[in-house]
Amino acid sequence: MGESGARGHESTTHSDDFESLRDCEGSVMLGWIAKRVYYVRLVDGVSADIGMEHIRRLERALKSVPTLFYFTDVSSLRRYDMLARSAFLGLILRHRQKFSSLVALVPSGSASAATAALAATLGNAMMLVKDAKEFDQRLVAAAPLAKLLLDPSTTPQLVAALRGSERR
């Protein structure tokens, strides 16, 4: 297991560009899924430590590109630390011009009040999607190899080969 800046969580690197962070409250998978396409999946709960680590990594990603497409799957998210959520909103608002788009897969019922408020604040820049197939279609349109790269059965060697061919 790799080391990370946040206390009390584990970091498992999948590749140089994509990793998973876990603690007792939940997990976050995050990183570059394609050139200028950043993917995040939040599962169960986001603690303050994991939330702030996500923000640090996203901020580094934002500094490394002129713009990016941000896809996030929050359909399995049950809790999100309020300070981390506020810091995330601040980051999004500070770097609003860097987001070509923000697409969020939300639970099939309704988006949380905080997610709906964020979407209202960002207007057309953020799309809330309730259908997983629609989310996948949008993700694959931006990152054609996304489904294969996110498949847990894909070997690290295949991921490296796919990433190498993608960058050519």
List the helices and strands and how they pair.
Layout: E1 10-13, E2 18-23, E3 26-34, E4 37-46, H1 48-64, E5 68-80, H2 82-94, E6 99-105, H3 113-122, E7 126-129, H4 132-142, H5 146-150, H6 156-166
Parallel strand pairs: 4-5, 5-6, 6-7
Antiparallel strand pairs: 1-2, 2-3, 3-4
What does this structure look like?
With 168 residues, this protein is of the alpha/beta class. It has one domain (10-166): Transcription Regulator spoIIAA, CATH 3.30.750. 40% of the residues lie in helices and 32% in strands. It contains six helices and seven strands, in the order ββββαβαβαβααα. A seven-stranded mixed β-sheet has the order 1-2-3-4-5-6-7, with helices on both faces. The longest helix has 17 residues, at 48-64.
Summary?
The protein has 168 residues and is α/β, with parallel strands linked by helices. The protein has six helices and seven strands; from the N terminus they run ββββαβαβαβααα.
